[in-house]
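Slide 14.
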Amino acid sequence: MKSATPATPTVALPAEWRDFFALTKPRVMTLVIFSGLCGLLAAPATIHPVIAFTAILCIAVGAGGAAALNMWWEADLDAGMKRTATRPLPSGRMDPTSARDFGIALSAGSVGVMGLGVNWLAAGILAFSIFYYAWIYTVWLKPRTPQNIVIGGGAGAFPPLIGWVAVTGDITLMPVLLFAIIFMWTPPHFWALALFVQTDYAKVGIPMMPVIAGEKSTRRQILIYAVLLLPVTLAPWFIGGTGWVYGLSALLLGLVFVALSAKVGLRDTGPDDKMLPEKRLFGYSILYLFVLFGMLAFDRLATVQGWQ
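Slide 15: predicted structure.
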């Protein structure tokens, strides 16, 4: 659902640099940068430090551009939800045109610099990832189907693939598996959040899984995805793409993820439930992905240094 103007006030106040920075969703960008960097470091080749920095910067700027376009389009929805009402557009601190143009400039600039400074395959994937998030997920999927997070999970799964391709210049099974890990991780991660903020989504008509299918079905699917995620994370080890450092870490981290998901998936809730297992799962899911990809990069270092 497109937003033409912020909800309140009707006249936007002068935007500060903090407002433009907020449009890039910096907390989300942290994970994007980290997973892209780990994909780059795990690749079985070398890259000049300046080119590596350029690649990560382009991934970050591209993600920020896509986020700005997302906020521009969803300003009216954000105005109706408690956790997003203070963002720059719904609060009236920025006019929609500035947000849109900022998003377009970041997106186009990041793709152009990636192509000229790194390689055009990485630039092409970056361009598609921006389109995927800003259009396929934001405009098409999110307001239409409770599977929005499942299909839209691809948007956040591109950074390690782009990082890998920035180094190697080609796509092999390993970076595809890195993409698949984040793709499978996204539903249990986001649905855990959606369970305890579902009233916000219901209020603005976004068909998130708990709103449409109910809590019981959502909990069951969280557990199913967590179980399916475990073998996907172990696949890089099985095919010989990593060593035991990553493999053992993926196994232990995954077992904890499944255990926490089981506490969510196999329980009933009452009217005064505080959703503590769901909040624990959501918090752990973020830590899980940071540690998992960190161990992926460390595994590559251990291999190069002959530690394994």
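Speaker note: Residues 1-11 have pLDDT under 50 and may be disordered.
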